[in-house]
Structures are given as C-alpha cells and as structure tokens.
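Now for one record.
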Amino acid sequence: MDIIDKKILNIIQKNFPLDAEPFKAVAEKIGISEEEALDRIRRMKQDGIIRRDRGGLRFPEARFRQQAVRCKGAGRKIKGLC
C-alpha cells in the first residue's frame, strides 16, 4: 500500500463524492486516471484492505430532515420500533 492507496482510502471513507461518476471524481482529486483508481480499489478489495463497499447516507449533508426505520418481522410489530 502506497501513498496513493492511502489517499484513495481517505476519500472513500471520509468524503465519497455524490457524483454520477464518483470514481472518476476520486481519481481527479488525486491526479490519477479513473482506471488506475478502480484497479487500486479492486486490488485493495482482493487483499482484504477494503472489506465492503456499501455507502452510508449522511442525512444532514443530503438535506434530509428525518430518517425512517423499516422493520421486517413476518407481520409482527417490534416493541419500541414499529
């Protein structure tokens, strides 16, 4: 893992771009091609450095005022939640 990998990880973890082409935006911030950024991310996944790649929405930044919780429990209500 080199300094470029570390920069990619910092961007992905702290400020992943909400963009139509997010990996291109990540690459541009670092000064590499989108293809190189994607290759590095794939390698870090294969090496176990990146375990999952699911996003979490930051509600205030997305300008949402409320969060909803969806409960699934075969028609039963979960006390205190649903």
In short: The first helix runs from residue 3 to 14. The domain at 1-82 is CATH 1.10.10.10 (Arc Repressor Mutant, subunit A). Helices lie at 3-14, 22-30, 34-46.
